[in-house]
Amino acid sequence: MPFFDTAEAIRAWIQGWTVSRGTADPVPTPWGFTVDVGLPGHVVRHVLSAADETAVREITENTTAPGVWLKTPTPPETLERWLGPGWSLAGGPGFLMSAPPNATHAEAPPATPDGYRLDTWNRAGVARTLIRTADGAFAARGQVAVTGFGFVVDQVETDPAHQRRGLGRLVMRTLADIAAGQGATAGVLVATPQGRALYETAGWHVLAPLTGAVRS
User: pTM, whole model, 2 decimals?
Assistant: First the structure.
């Protein structure tokens, strides 16, 4: 396991996620971290390092402003029972996943399929990969932020019309190789159920559920 425990993986994830999304730095709290996101409908995000019922109840029962989010390594059915009035589950089931140090070099990099082109660039500490068709239409994308020995893969997406052609796997390998080139040795990300299937084929493993909730 590339991280000592789930709490360390969550710390690495929120550090990289804030770089990837351009938010404020995460502020440590007794139960995890708080991040100023600053978007309509997503003003603040609380991230818990453990499944802590007391902390969830304290946060959700004392927060009345809309647009406050919470993430915790807790199954959805459990978190839903802990939420205070005005809160609801959001974002669907999520999975905190990690990649072992050698996962990015387990096989030869896949080739870009015929009819597509791949471009990468780096801006403000975030490396981005974009795959387009020969005529320039969007096909797939992803980005990665490196913080210390860890790297966070984020915003991976394949257009439905271009799925099952290996583009998602190509994006993942490209981002992991960029991170390895910057000295990172362990990856972490948060996956949807659909994304989980892709990442597991690329050597990633589930560490814990990671469920979101929002105050409406």
Answer: 0.94
